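Extended Data, record Prephenate/arogenate dehydrogenase domain-containing protein
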Amino acid sequence: SQVILLCTSILSTEKVLKSLPFPRLKRSTLFVDVLSVKEFPRNAFLQTLPQDFDILCTHPMFGPESGKNGWNGLSFVFDKVRIGMDDRRTSRCDSFLDIFAREGCSMVEMSCAEHDWHAAGSQFITHTVGRVLEKLGLESTPVDTKGYETLLKLVENTAGDSFDLYYGLFLYNPNAMEQLERFGFAFESLKKQLFGRLHGLLHKQLFGIDKETQITLETTGLSTFR
């Protein structure tokens, strides 16, 4: 075969890759992956594949749900990690990419590292929000707003993916941990903002003055609330 397309789960990639009979393959075989993380398969390919094998890392930024009505306008990210310089090999790589371009995909060439940086702030956060909402057990109501319907759709889309995929996005994207921490900090900051305003309101109801005025009086020694 001239092209081998690796469509494994993230967690099984290394096992599958190491099980392939490389001596039986043509020495100029093109290896392509479609994993949702990119630096991980790139490094695995470079470490495992013989030097004369070509490497193309790709990520179709859609799945069964988002792509069920066609791929027109949907992003397809790719990185020509190692492609031989002769016309036959460059033409083969371009022909593979053209399969998606002809379907109307928005073809985006970027490095695997750049992809993982962007994906951690978009795809991983999307999956995280969807799974948090799933744990809330959200259900449709007689008075759903459009915004709430969007949340329900998000839960439906992310719940359709296995937890192994989500775990793979976390484990094999070096930027995912930072995004998860930022998500936690943002939630805590929002709670503090809510409770801070609530505390100020209660203080005003109890003492008839706002919190800022009370602090000013205390610092100037004029407070009667001692």
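Summary. The CA atoms of residues 145 and 151 lie 10 Å apart.
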